[in-house]
Amino acid sequence: MGPADVAALDAGADHGADAPRGRGVVGVEAATMSSAHHIGPALVHMAAVLAEGDSRPGRKPGDWLDGRISEEAQLAAIRRHLDRYEDGEEIDADSGAHSLAHVMARCAMLITLDTTREE
Question: Is the pLDDT of residue 81 over 90?
């Protein structure tokens, strides 16, 4: 995903006053999706991790949204992938994806759940 791709996504985004906002969203108007073009490759890696997880037996896209994966389990997975990365495992042996993309995916899940759940 390059800058033009992200700019196209941003051009179609609704940033109006009625656009939904999650808890903890800071600087949405100042830092829209167009700011993400610098991390496009990392986002592609994260998306690949999410897709790989969705394709596992018994799983379906977005099934983590129901909260069945506890916060503790998510944090443990983040720590496990960070530890492996620090130990030199850049590529996860199980999935073949970048270890830090697994960290990003788990963080994205936690942020999504935290900012969209009902108070």
Answer: yes
Kindly report the average pLDDT of the chain as a whole number: 79
Contacts of 40 (CB under 8 A, 6+ apart): 1, 2, 3, 5, 6
Number of C-beta neighbours around residue 12 at 10 A:
8
| 92-101 contacts, C-beta under 8 A, 24 or more apart | 95/49, 95/52, 97/45, 97/48, 97/49, 97/52, 98/45, 98/49, 100/42, 100/45, 101/42, 101/45, 101/46, 101/48, 101/49
Residue 11 has pLDDT above 70, yes or no: no
Mean pLDDT of 92-113: 95
